[in-house]
Amino acid sequence: MTKLLVIMGSGETTPTMIKPHRQFFATLPDTAPAVLLDTPYGFQLNADEISARAVGYFAQSVGRAVDVVSWRQAPPPGLDRERALAALRRASWIFAGPGSPTYALRQWHDTELPALLTQADVLVFASAAALTLGSHTIPVYEIYKAGADPRWSPGLDLFHQLTGVPAVIVPHYDNAEGGHHDTRFCYLGEPRLARLERELPEGTLIVGVDEHTALVCDLTAMTATVLGNGTLTLRRGGHSTVHPSGTVLPSPSPKGRAPS
């Protein structure tokens, strides 16, 4: 069976991503269990509404039933925790999306959950959840909204585990919400990204995924495909290569410069 790691820059529940989502589900049996993990937005007062909208999108637009696994805070030992873990163990498709990456990491670190994520046949992480996949994570809210000094937070490093490539993931790579000020690179802008890049371990690859764009890593075929409206940027040591939608690459090389 094909094993996929899908990273979406944004737009995970928009019309742009209906066709890609259908493609990912098509690699699985019709009865394969599919779950949405609600952690990244679990702190929000409208978390139930966000879950309901996402479940409705997958049912109505994608044509697949998705169950919600609630892990808004790491459950204490007991029945609720075991039920959540059992659902994740059974799941062939696991999805997580918007919210706060650092909030999600506080709930996931030092639990059984990261190991279970790597066992899914299709793992789809978008936006805030995508940020957690690297060795380091951008604390977006803290830097952009609260004025914290640019810094990294420890990530789950699941991209490295699954692909063999040490990397950090930067969704919203082409963000333009700032208008006259630079909000590219997940609201960091070029000066902050350049500063943070210098703090990464040597050889770390920055994987930049534009908004309404997906990077599909086929872990069986060892390929990486760009889908959607934008581009993929692979950046290492200040050198970037940009790959348009439709590009199919071999898995990124763990050593040397970003592939061209």
What is the fold's blueprint, element by element?
Layout: E1 4-8, H1 18-26, E2 34-37, H2 47-62, E3 67-69, H3 79-90, E4 93-96, H4 101-108, H5 113-117, E5 122-126, H6 127-131, E6 136-137, H7 140-145, E7 153-154, H8 158-163, E8 167-170, H9 184-187, H10 190-197, E9 205-209, E10 213-218, E11 223-228, E12 231-236, E13 239-244, E14 248-250
Parallel strand pairs: 1-5, 2-3, 2-4, 4-5, 8-9
Antiparallel strand pairs: 1-10, 6-7, 9-12, 10-11, 11-14, 12-13
Feature tags:
Rossmann fold; 260 residues
What is the string of SSEs from the N terminus onward? EHEHEHEHHEHEHEHEHHEEEEEE
Mean pLDDT: 94
Characterize the main sheet: 8 strands, mixed
- CATH topology, by name, is Rossmann fold
Helix content class = 25-40%
Portion of residues in beta strands equals: 15-25%
Number of strands: 14
Distance between the termini: 29 Å
Instruction: Count the DSSP helices.
Output: 10
CATH architecture, by name, is: 3-Layer(aba) Sandwich
What order do the strands of the largest sheet run in, or round the barrel if closed? 3-2-4-5-1-10-11-14
The stretches of 5 or more residues where confidence is low (pLDDT under 50) are 255-260
- Globular, elongated, flat, extended or rod-shaped: what is the shape? globular
* CATH homologous superfamily label: Class I glutamine amidotransferase (GATase) domain
**What Rg, in angstroms, do the CA atoms define?**
17 Å
Question: What is the C-level CATH assignment?
Answer: Alpha Beta
Main structural class: alpha/beta
Write down the domain tally.
1
